[in-house]
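Homework help board

Subject: predicted structure for assignment chain

Our instructor gave us this sequence and asked us to write out the predicted structure in token form, then describe one feature. I got the tokens but I'm not sure how to describe them. Can anyone check?
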Amino acid sequence: MSAPDDGSAGAGSPAPRTSLTIGVVTGVSPDRWLRVWAERMPQIPLILRPVADDDAFQVLQDGVDFVFARTDRPADDDHSVIALWEETPVAVAPKGSPFSVVESVVLAELEDETLLAGNGSDTLDLVAAGAGIARMPQSVFRASGRRDVIARPIRDAEPTRIALVWRSGTDDEVTQEFVGIVRGRTVQSSRGSTAAADPVPAPSAREPRRPSTPPAKRARFPRPTPRGKGRRR
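My token output:
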């Protein structure tokens, strides 16, 4: 007689994933990774969830598997972190302000301005009304689509950084696959323990400087012959 099944078979093994939830802060576009994921893992759909900057780590306790966060925090015992790129900080001012006639600013030029907190639509409404200026990542300003304000890069301000964050100890095959895609691993690449790997910062997202073009040479014209110094007769 066979022993009755008490449900202990497979106990402790995680249930297979049916989806993957990705948190995304404002200004980040994960489209390129989503396309690769859809090609390699079509059986597991990705669910995107907008996330506020201050909640980026908290949502990992609320059902989010990965989050593209705006953070400088390194990896620790609870979180794995891969640094991805840097964002240019900008000053957002009303149209027609003195900032309209310059291409960029420095922090010293902002000291006498009224700085408004936040980077949402309410803050931008106040900027447009002339109540002050705001500082935010350039990607956040672009995502707003606002046409009634302007943004100028702040040359000497520290950039913000985008990183991929997930819970430490989560190293199942699906997790490894997503981490590998973000790292740029191809299908032919060997799979290691990506969750335990040291984070490798990606190159900065700033546009590379264009090589300077040498000045064009001036055309040389024959010098006129001074009067009185012509050919002797």
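Reply (TA_rk): Your tokens look well-formed. For the description, you could write something like this. The radius of gyration is 28 Å. That's the kind of observation they're looking for.
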